[in-house]
């Protein structure tokens, strides 16, 4: 029975709940400085992404490392373009 | 909300008429199915199917219905603006119609038409028996159908969205759009968008993992390549829409301030998120059309595709660039010269890979033996007309000039010049091209060509005047104008063009009926003397696609095998493993439809009930044991002989 228990999925489920609650503290506790709030959000978001990729999507199990790296590079690139493009258009470059 | 408010839109005679005709149509279908005892047949063969070909047919069926719904919207708009100070539609009704026209044509016509063709063709082109996750594929279809249904009932129950298909805040916020119309917008896009996202993942997996032995990536047909790139874009772009719509729902129904103009909100952030999804969406609907044109042009020029590798790399370049240009949709928002400069350059860069593709098609045709079939006519018309759309796109890409064109009919003319010859001609070419594969007979060429000429002439007459009107300062989305503006004559020309276009689409549909009655059955499986693998199997395609999965040695293996007289589908039959049908996708989408419907009206008790029911379906699926079934050798033999006309 032990092998049948989906240990990773349960860990991932609990992990993502805990991380979401941690991120929620930013709005629940008023008076946090902007820097601290932003740090909490970025750290929990990155950890959340790792939990999803490793525990649910089994990113480490693939044989084909080359296409894995290409996919990761493409994803990171599109993500960075979207985030920094938005910041550029909405905040930094605004007249 | 009282019943009176709920059915308030019905007070308008035109909407009342439409409501009644929907009711009569629905009753006719129910009565007809009961009278001919077809309920069991419908449920068993279609509603519960997981067969990618049947799902594709259902996608295209719904897409054609939506084409007519969106087309009627378009005709009403052109009729309203055909003469100055026209009173056919009031301002509110006009707002609703241009909103639903845009939404329906993009999300519920172009997308399902393209996904339908992908469903039918991709597994056949790569020699697979089905997609990677057949049950998920059925769920994708039913979620899309639920979304389409939700948007279409909005104009009878509660009111349609009326803030434009882009639904910019603050106009789309609860303060300025207090009726439920924009809740419908959020939920119909949300559930059909989830379906599309699943399609994206499903097709990437199918193409990456399930190709026939020997078919490396660079030996894939061009339509499969375009589908792969498209589905990658879908997978990256649609989550942005999902999040943006969720934030919209929170703002409208739970009082948050993400897109508010005060309290730390940012109204233009909606426009930003919308176009982060919306611009890649443009390429989602255009790249598969490019793939279809590549197949059609190569087949009917009797030549292999010129510059295969450059085609692939230009599509990869487009996929990356498509995520780098979205700000060009709101140059006039007020950000600085630097931002506009950057996005002008990335936008113009997209013209380079697109230009590469145009030249590749031209060079494919050079010295080719061109046959003028209906699909080829669409491909030939596409090249010059799309180029006009592309060139006006580069004009719009220049930020400083865009201040002049922004929000005028020039823009409207531009995107119709891109989307109609690109996407619509593309899917129509594919529709005529692959029809015999699915149904076992060809569409009538003479009717097909008449429809083509009506569509291509009507389109140009309807939309070219809009370029001139736009440069004269005709703003888009105006429900009427005064005679002094001088917009009257050209608007009338445009309306006449729209009528010709409508005749073309009517002929297109009549052709289905006519060909069904009169077309000779097709027994070779390869009516066009075509090149890629889907033509190697029988028409109509048997459930298992290929009795023997061929081994692929090169691009266009089937074509070269034909020339060398080899039969790539010969071999010893073995029993074939296939997935089982299931009603769960349809019922689950039905439950999600009700969930969304009650969410639109904030009826929380029923939202909770149907929300739990949805989770129940997922739990059921997790514990369900479904091993599929086998098709035995005897049955395969019988089917193959029947389709060859030997029995």
Kindly describe this structure:
The complex is a heterodimer of chains A (95) and B (647). Chain A has 95 residues and is mainly α. Chain A has helices spanning 7-28, 34-56, 65-92. Chain A has two domains: 1-58; 61-95. In chain A, helix 1 (7-28) packs antiparallel against helix 2. In chain B, strands 1-2 form a two-stranded antiparallel ribbon. The radius of gyration of chain B is 25 Å and the shape is globular. In chain B, helix 8 (222-254) packs antiparallel against helix 9 (267-300) and helix 10 (308-321) packs antiparallel against helix 11. Chain B is mostly helical. Helices cover 67% and strands 1% of the residues of chain B.
Rounded to an integer in angstroms, the radius of gyration calculated over CA atoms of chain B is 25 Å
Give the DSSP E fraction of chain A (strand runs of 2 or more residues): under 5%
Overall form of chain B: globular
Mean pLDDT of chain A: 87
Largest sheet of chain A: none
Number of helices, where a helix is a run of at least 4 consecutive DSSP H or I residues of chain B: 20
Radius of gyration of chain A: 18 Å
State the secondary-structure class of chain B: mainly alpha
Give the averaged pLDDT of chain B, no decimals: 92
- What portion of residues of chain B is helical? 55-70%
Domain count of chain A: 2
β-strand percent of chain B reads: under 5%
Query: How would the global form of chain A be characterised?
Result: flat
Query: Regions of chain A with pLDDT < 50 over 5+ consecutive residues?
Result: none
Q: Largest sheet of chain B at a glance?
A: 2 strands, antiparallel
């Amino acid at each position: 029975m032990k092998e049948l228990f989906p240990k990773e999925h349960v860990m991932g489920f609990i992990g993502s709940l805990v991380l979401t609650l941690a991120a929620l503290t930013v709005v629940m506790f008023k008076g946090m400085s902007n820097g601290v709030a932003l740090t909490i959000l970025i750290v929990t978001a990155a950890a959340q992404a790792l939990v999803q990729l490793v525990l649910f999507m089994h990113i480490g199990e693939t044989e084909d490392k080359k296409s894995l790296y290409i996919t990761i590079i493409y994803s990171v690139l599109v993500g960075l373009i979207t985030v920094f493009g938005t910041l550029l258009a909405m905040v930094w470059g605004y007249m | 909300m009282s019943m009176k408010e709920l059915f308030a839109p019905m007070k308008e005679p035109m909407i009342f008429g439409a409501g009644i005709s929907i009711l009569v149509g629905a009753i006719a279908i129910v009565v007809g199915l009961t009278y001919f005892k077809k309920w069991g047949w419908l449920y068993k063969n279609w509603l519960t199917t997981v067969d990618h070909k049947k799902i594709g047919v259902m996608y295209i069926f719904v897409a054609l219905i939506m084409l007519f719904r969106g087309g009627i919207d378009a005709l009403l708009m052109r009729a309203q603006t055909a003469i100055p100070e026209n009173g056919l539609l009031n301002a509110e009704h006009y707002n609703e119609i241009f909103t639903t026209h845009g939404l329906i044509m993009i999300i519920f016509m172009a997308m399902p038409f393209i996904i339908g063709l992908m469903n039918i063709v991709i597994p056949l082109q790569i020699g697979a028996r089905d997609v990677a996750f057949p049950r998920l594929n059925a769920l994708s279809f039913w979620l899309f159908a639920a979304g389409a249904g939700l948007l279409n009932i909005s104009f009878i129950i509660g009111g349609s969205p009326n803030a434009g298909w882009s639904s910019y805040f603050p106009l789309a916020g609860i303060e300025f759009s207090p009726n439920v119309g924009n809740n419908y917008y959020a939920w119909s896009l949300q559930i059909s968008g989830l379906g599309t996202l699943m399609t994206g993942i499903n097709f990437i997996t199918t193409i990456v993992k399930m190709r026939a032995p020997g078919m490396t990536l660079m030996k894939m047909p061009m339509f499969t390549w375009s589908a792969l790139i498209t589905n990658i874009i879908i997978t990256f772009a649609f989550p942005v829409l999902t999040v943006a719509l969720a934030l919209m729902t929170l703002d409208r129904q739970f009082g948050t301030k993400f897109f508010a103009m005060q309290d730390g909100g940012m109204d233009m952030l909606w426009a930003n998120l919308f176009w982060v999804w919306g611009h890649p969406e443009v390429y989602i609907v255009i790249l598969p059309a490019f793939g279809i044109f590549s197949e059609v042009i190569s087949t009917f020029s009797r030549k292999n595709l010129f510059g295969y590798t450059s085609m692939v790399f230009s599509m990869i370049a487009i996929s990356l660039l498509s995520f780098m240009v979205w700000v060009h949709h709101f140059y006039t928002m007020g950000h600085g010269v630097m931002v506009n400069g950057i996005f002008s350059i990335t936008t113009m860069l997209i013209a380079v890979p697109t230009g590469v593709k145009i030249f590749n098609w031209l060079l494919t045709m050079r010295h080719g033996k061109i046959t003028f079939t209906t699909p080829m006519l669409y491909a030939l018309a596409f090249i010059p007309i799309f180029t006009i759309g592309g060139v006006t796109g580069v004009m719009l890409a220049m930020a400083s000039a865009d201040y002049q064109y922004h929000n005028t009919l020039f823009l409207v003319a531009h995107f119709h010049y891109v989307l109609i010859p690109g996407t619509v001609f593309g899917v129509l070419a594919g529709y005529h091209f692959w029809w015999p594969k699915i149904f076992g007979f060809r569409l009538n060429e003479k009717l097909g060509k008449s429809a083509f000429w009506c569509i291509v002439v009507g389109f140009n007459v309807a939309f070219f005047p809009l370029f001139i009107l736009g440069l004269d300062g005709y703003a888009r989305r105006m429900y009427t104008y005064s005679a002094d503006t001088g917009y009257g004559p050209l608007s009338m020309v445009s309306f006449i063009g729209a009528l010709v276009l409508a005749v073309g689409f009517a002929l297109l549909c009549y052709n289905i009926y006519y060909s069904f009655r009169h077309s000779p059955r097709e027994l070779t499986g390869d009516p066009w003397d075509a090149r890629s693998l889907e033509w190697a199997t029988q028409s109509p395609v048997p459930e298992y696609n290929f009795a023997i999965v061929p081994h692929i040695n090169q691009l266009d293996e089937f074509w070269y095998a034909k020339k060398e007289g080899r039969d790539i589908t010969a071999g010893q039959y073995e029993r074939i493993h296939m997935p089982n049908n299931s009603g769960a996708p349809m019922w689950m989408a039905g439950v999600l439809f009700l969930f969304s419907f009650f969410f639109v009206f904030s009826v929380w008790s029923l939202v909770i009930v149907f929300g739990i029911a949805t989770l129940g379906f997922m739990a059921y699926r997790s514990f369900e044991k479904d091993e599929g079934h086998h098709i035995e050798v005897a049955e395969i033999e019988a089917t193959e002989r029947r389709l060859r006309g030997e029995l």
